[in-house]
Design a protein that fits this description.
By secondary structure, the protein is of the alpha/beta class. The protein has helices at residues 14-21, 48-61, 74-84, 110-117, 122-128, 130-137, 149-161, 165-174, 227-239, and strands spanning 2-3, 28-29, 67-72, 88-94, 188-193, 211-215. 38% of the residues lie in helices and 12% in strands.
Length: 240
C-alpha cells in the first residue's frame, strides 16, 4: 500500500508504480480528503491515527488482513499508525512526518490559498513556463526539471483542491508526535531526503528502527528525483 503525504494524492507514486507493480500487487490510495477520496468529518479531528483507521477500513473492504506499507511524509506517519493497529507487515517511511519533539502550533495556509486562487490559470502557466514550474516545485522536489509539465500540474492541483487539507493539516500539527513503537512489531525503514526543505531527521530517534538511510539528491517528494532509489528502498523493506 502506497500512502501519499499532506496535500498530495496517489499520483505522486507515478514514477515508481510500474517498477513496484512488476513484482508486487500494489494499492496506491488517496487519503480521506485528498484526490478522489471524500473528507472525513472534522469531529473528531482527522489525525494520523484516524486516517490510519480509515485505511484499515479500506483493507477490510478489500478482504486484506495486513499489507506492506510505504508512505511519504504524513503517509509515513499514517503507515506507522496502521502498523500499530496490526494491519501492516512492514513500514517504509520516506521523509516521514511525526518525529518532531512536540505538537506543532497552527500555521497559516498561505501557499494553499494562493494555489487555489491560481487554479483558473494553472494549466497554461505550468505548461507554458519551465521557470514557473521550477519555482512552484522547488519546495518539494530536489530537481524540479525532472518533473514533466503534466505531473507538475497534477501535484499543484492536488495541493490546491484537497478538501481535507486544512483540517488534516491542523490535526497533524496538533497530534502527539511519534514517541514510541509500542504496539509496532514489524520492520521499519526510515528514508530521509538530503535536500528536504520540509522534514529533517531528528537528532535522535525516539525509538530504534531496523533501517535508516538517506536518499542523496532528493527533495521531500523524491519519486521524480530518484525513482530507482525509491523502488529499491521500498522493495528492500517489503522483501526483508
Amino acid at each position: 500500500m502506497l500512502v501519499h503525504g499532506l496535500g498530495g494524492d496517489r499520483g505522486i507514486w507515478a514514477p515508481v508504480l510500474g517498477a513496484l507493480a512488476s513484482s508486487h500487487d500494489v494499492i496506491a490510495v488517496d487519503l480521506p480528503g485528498f484526490g478522489r477520496s471524500a473528507a472525513l468529518p472534522e469531529d473528531p479531528p482527522p489525525s494520523p491515527v484516524r486516517l490510519a483507521g480509515a485505511l484499515a477500513e479500506l483493507l477490510d473492504a478489500l478482504a486484506l488482513d495486513r499489507v506492506h506499507v510505504a508512505g511519504n511524509s504524513l503517509g509515513g506517519w499514517v503507515g506507522l499508525e496502521l502498523a500499530r493497529l496490526g494491519r501492516a507487515l512492514s513500514v517504509c517511511g520516506i521523509a516521514p512526518a511525526g518525529f518532531w519533539g512536540r505538537p506543532l502550533p497552527p500555521k497559516p495556509f498561505v501557499a494553499h490559498h494562493v494555489s487555489r486562487a491560481l487554479r483558473p490559470v494553472l494549466r497554461p502557466a505550468i505548461h507554458g513556463s519551465a521557470r514557473l514550474r521550477h519555482r512552484a516545485l522547488t519546495g518539494v522536489v530536489g530537481d524540479p526539471s525532472r518533473v514533466p509539465a503534466a505531473d507538475a500540474e497534477r501535484i499543484i492541483r492536488a495541493y490546491a483542491d484537497g478538501p481535507g487539507f486544512v483540517a488534516v493539516n491542523k490535526a497533524m500539527r496538533a497530534a502527539e508526535p511519534l514517541r514510541s513503537r509500542e504496539g509496532i512489531d514489524v520492520p521499519i525503514t526510515l528514508a530521509w531526503c538530503e535536500l528536504d526543505r520540509l522534514v529533517r531527521p531528528p537528532r535522535q530517534l525516539p525509538f530504534a528502527v531496523e533501517r535508516e538511510t538517506e536518499l542523496a539528491g532528493c527533495g521531500h517528494v523524491p519519486m521524480w528525483d530518484d525513482p530507482d532509489a525509491i523502488v529499491d528502498v521500498v522493495k528492500a523493506t517489503a522483501d526483508g
